[in-house]
């Protein structure tokens, strides 16, 4: 029973990782950069919902909508201000800028909201499901996280493969210059990617803070990094890969914590990353990218 | 490019030279002796970063105590001045820097540090400088290994032992699960002694679960283990922030054991936006509860709230307030003057505190100190009832 | 047969000279008692951070790869040497013998781990390498935070669970107490030793950059495929750089751990690695002297400007972003360079011509 309980908790956590990982995978696939600040956009989303609900007394659906809008705008702004000037720079410069951006968001939040963590009120009111006389309980948040992540993966796959904008994204990820020659506006495509990724981050923020109801300026940092591990695990650039990777990482983390050592559960997740990169650097569903001379 | 770099290097060098000069300037001021009628109390604790709320509470309460003493005309005409530095709860250079900065500002008696890690980093410095050190809240056993360091708070092992005794003697539960923070000195210190004492008292520890600083939001695995082991009580030797999450997550997992905690849980009712009904029935051993009805506590809480924007003082604040008052009492007893050297003051105070000295404060009546530095006072058990603390 | 001094050599000697001047100045201040406790306490950490910055600059500036595991290597150096010093502090009482041994042990342990982790991951590049080194640093921190080591008459005891799990005898002593870390390490780090090691670090770094190996490494940075095609063994040179970075970071860790009475693994977190990165970026990627200056300034300045402590991290974040955009975006960089030259032209009217030619 305990094993089943842990497994469900792992899938719950994994679904949230999956939603975060989708943002990473999209941005990495198209802009070819590791957006370190992605995890912190999650935190911003959480704070927006918190402020809207507690300080302004808005209802939960409106606040979630507001958070999605706010994060989308934030994502586009970050891209325009910090990343766009570096489009032609080395990956080292871009990475350092992204780390700077992540630090910037964290410390801005610290100055605005203070260091005291806030208790988040869950926005989800799906009833919990009790199995085996209450020995295993599936929380409403778990159900919501799983459903939301599946819906997002399906919608995103449809969008990318069957709409013009989506196919433009695919084209840019294949070859930026060729896409430009074919009349695709690369800049607006990259902006769109950041917008979608950041909107997803807001959703992930709401799920994360509802399941683990606390909110501080570093709320997004660790889940962000672990979700990147998930994106790599599933194969970076692949939408179903992000889902599979996310759930696997979530399950590994929870089972590791329950059966190996709680102190080492993070170390186990990171060890998985190192193993994956050693054995199959392209991840489970990733494809090999040939380097051009 | 080269010009830019050169310019940058030059300007940096200039700043460096500047900061060196400021340093020299500072040194002229550094003097262990103060003026005749003022004693400088140095405080050190986290004012920024994740643990800032503890440091700020200590700073505020200490300032409140100092102001009260000075308004009443000081002790034997001697007034106090509090200087407080930020150590960011760091166990390394930040703590030492804060300490050195206090020394440069003429500290004669030290009230600090707030956290155990920082305290361990400086106890050998206060020992070699021979400065009297009274820590309000650094509770590890190692903190008081030197003869010049004393505690206002309980030493961790005492809390663990007292908790186990309380649970066993009052027959609260037999099957106990523990969830503790293995990356925290306070938490693992209590855990270790609790476990030993619980085994001696015949309590059955069915699950020992830990978490770390990096994974302190998701407790599902720990709760699941406690639940499947059918624990009747979860012992939480942790801080209230994580405890509030554990309470919420237990509820959503349909698991309702009893909860028992230590002084770290004090403050749980003032967590922003926390659903107080979750904490209903939680028991804790704490030397201080802001809702206690005795006059001293009410007076302190009122004064604190007036001075600091309606903030409710927590146990750290109470410890710090007591700390300053204890120093004041000792200064009065030994008729210390502001122009004495820090090490002279230290020799007198450390003798005086363990020599028949007793103090009635917010965090305990008739507190006494052994020469080892640990305080002896009775922990109070309280239970949370209708969103308030009630004595057990 | 004396050749003309090359610009690189001149540069390195200017750095050595500057360091020597600062060292002598500080020594004079210390011996005349004209030094605040604060500055005195900062001396060793300043050297430690300078060494860290120089060593990271070898990977970031010379190799052109981002390593976020600097704190991890530092942690290994700090812990391994502290274990050693704690074990032998009763047998070897002379710090002048004990401490050099500790430094060597700490450095070598860190370098071994650097190479160990380097072999599998150095096939990766860019973002992947950065994230793996970050992961590695976190693993190291977590493992050391969960590690309990004690010794008694029957030998050393290890555990990853708890203190009670060790089964120590009555005469047992704890060396590493899990998350509580190590305490009781002898305070062997002095400013003189730290400065000497910083000096040696600089000599190693400058000679590395100017050596055949250093040039091979830089060719990998500038064009990996071209470098490979002329027969440069990429993995080998990357490993050398990585190992050297780890070694120096380990040595910095030794100095660090022997400067404090107690030490916790949580100190060596991601933020520490980023802090060192900020030094490197502000000092100028690839500039060894710049790294030292930036490390010194950014270690001392916050201590003297304690009132604005809340904004420190925000300031670091802005440094990272602004420095990167200003140095990597062609338009902005040209704007700055152009204006600097104009400014320079105004100040040194007659000199500007020759300087321009030299550029």
Account of the protein in words:
- Chain A has 293 residues and is mainly alpha-helical.
- Chain A has helices at residues 2-31, 38-55, 60-83, 91-113, 140-162, 164-174, 176-181, 186-211, 221-234, 239-259, 265-279, and strands at residues 118-119, 129-131, 136-138, 214-215.
- Chain A has a domain at 16-130 and 137-220.
- Chain A has 11 helices and 4 strands.
- Chain B folds into 2 domains: 38-153 and 295-377, 3-Layer(aba) Sandwich (Rossmann fold); 157-286, Rossmann fold, CATH 3.40.50.2300.
- Chain B has helices spanning 2-29, 52-71, 93-104, 116-129, 156-169, 185-200, 220-228, 240-252, 295-307, 315-333, 342-353; strands at residues 38-45, 79-86, 109-112, 132-135, 149-151, 175-181, 204-211, 233-236, 258-261, 283-286, 359-361, 364-369, 375-376, 380-385, 388-391.
- Chain C is mostly helical and 359 residues long.
- In chain C, strand 1 (148-152) and strand 2 (155-159) form a beta hairpin.
- The radius of gyration of chain C is 22 Å and the shape is globular.
- Mean pLDDT of chain C is 85; it is low at 352-359.
- Chains in contact: A-B, A-C, B-C.
- Chains A and C meet through helix 4, helix 9 and helix 11 of A and helix 5, helix 10, helix 12 and helix 13 of C.
Q: What is the fold's blueprint, element by element?
A:
The complex is a heterotrimer of chains A (293), B (392) and C (359).
Chain A: H1 2-31, H2 38-55, H3 60-83, H4 91-113, E1 118-119, E2 129-131, E3 136-138, H5 140-162, H6 164-174, H7 176-181, H8 186-211, E4 214-215, H9 221-234, H10 239-259, H11 265-279
Antiparallel strand pairs in A: 1-4, 2-3
Helix pairs in contact in A: 1-5, 1-8, 1-9, 1-10, 2-3, 2-4, 2-8, 2-9, 3-8, 5-6, 5-8, 6-8, 9-10, 9-11, 10-11
Chain B: H1 2-29, E1 38-45, H2 52-71, E2 79-86, H3 93-104, E3 109-112, H4 116-129, E4 132-135, E5 149-151, H5 156-169, E6 175-181, H6 185-200, E7 204-211, H7 220-228, E8 233-236, H8 240-252, E9 258-261, E10 283-286, H9 295-307, H10 315-333, H11 342-353, E11 359-361, E12 364-369, E13 375-376, E14 380-385, E15 388-391
Parallel strand pairs in B: 1-2, 1-3, 3-4, 4-5, 6-7, 6-8, 8-9, 9-10
Antiparallel strand pairs in B: 10-14, 11-12, 12-13, 14-15
Chain C: H1 7-31, H2 37-63, H3 70-88, H4 95-121, H5 126-145, E1 148-152, E2 155-159, E3 173-177, E4 182-183, H6 191-210, H7 212-222, H8 224-229, H9 234-257, E5 262-263, H10 270-283, H11 288-304, H12 312-328, H13 330-347, H14 352-358
Antiparallel strand pairs in C: 1-2, 1-3, 4-5
Helix pairs in contact in C: 1-6, 2-6, 2-9, 2-10, 2-11, 3-4, 3-5, 3-9, 4-9, 6-7, 7-9, 10-11, 10-12, 12-13
